[in-house]
C-alpha cells in the first residue's frame, strides 16, 4: 500500500475500514452540500477539508461510531469546514477597496482577462474558458479549477505557466439534472517577481457568486456582479 494518502487504491474493504465506505457511499455528498451556505465556505477548497477528514479517519484520529448516520457525517465534515473557514478568515482581516491595492495596474489587467472569461451551461455541459495571456510583465500563474455536483467532484484541473489558455467541458450534460447543486471554484495565484496576488472566484448554484482578492497584506471580498463578471446561470432544469 502506498504511504501517500492520495495514491491509496480503494478497491475493497481491506484497504480502509468498512465504515469509511459507508461514509463515502451514502452520506458524504449530501453532507458537503449542507455546508455550502456557511459564510466563507465559498473561499476555501472544500475538497481539501474532506481530505483532512478522510486522512484523520484513516489514521484513527476519529472514532467512527458502530452505526454511521447522516447526522454524524454532517457534523464531522461541518467541523472540518468550520476550522478551514476560521483559518482563512483569521489570515485575511485587512479588507480594503480595489483602489487601495499597490499593484492595481497589474490587477486590473488580470481582472480584465477574467471579465472576458466564459462560464455557461450549453448542450454538452458546463463550459469554462479562461485566457490569461499577452501580459507585458513576467507573470507566473498557478491556476486551479474545481467543479462539483451535489457535493461530488466532477473535475479538478491544476494549470501553471506564464500563460493560461483553458477551454473545456468540466461537467458533462448527462449529470446536469433538475435541482442539482452545481459549484465552480477558481483558485488563481499570480506571481510577479517576489510579489503574489491571489484571486478566488466561486459560484455555488445561483445563490453565491463571489470574488476574493488578496496581495498578502490587504484583501477584497465582492460579488462577481460588482466587477461586471457575468457567468451563465447554474439554475439547472434539464430533464427529470
Q: How does this structure look, described?
A:
This protein is an alpha+beta fold and 240 residues long. It is built from four helices and nine strands; from the N terminus they run H-H-H-H-E-E-E-E-E-E-E-E-E. It has helices at residues 18-33, 46-58, 70-90, 104-115, and strands at residues 118-122, 125-132, 139-149, 152-161, 164-172, 182-192, 195-204, 208-214, 219-223. The strands form two sheets. The chain has a six-stranded antiparallel beta sheet with strand order 4-3-6-7-8-9. Strand 8 (208-214) and strand 9 form a beta hairpin. Helix 1 packs across helix 3 (70-90) and helix 2 (46-58) packs across helix 3. The longest helix is centred in the middle third of the chain and has 21 residues, at 70-90. The mean pLDDT is 87.
Briefly say what this structure is.
This protein has 240 residues and is of the alpha+beta class.
- Distance N terminus to C terminus? 42 Å
The profile of the biggest β sheet is: 6 strands, antiparallel
Sketch the topology as an H/E string, one letter per element: HHHHEEEEEEEEE
Mean pLDDT over the residues? 87
The portion of residues forming beta strands comes to 25-35%
Lateral strand order in the biggest sheet: 4-3-6-7-8-9
Number of contiguous helices: 4
Cα Rg: 19 Å
Structural class: alpha+beta
Q: Tell me roughly what share of residues is in helical segments.
A: 25-40%
Uncertain regions: pLDDT < 50 for 5+ in a row?
Answer: none
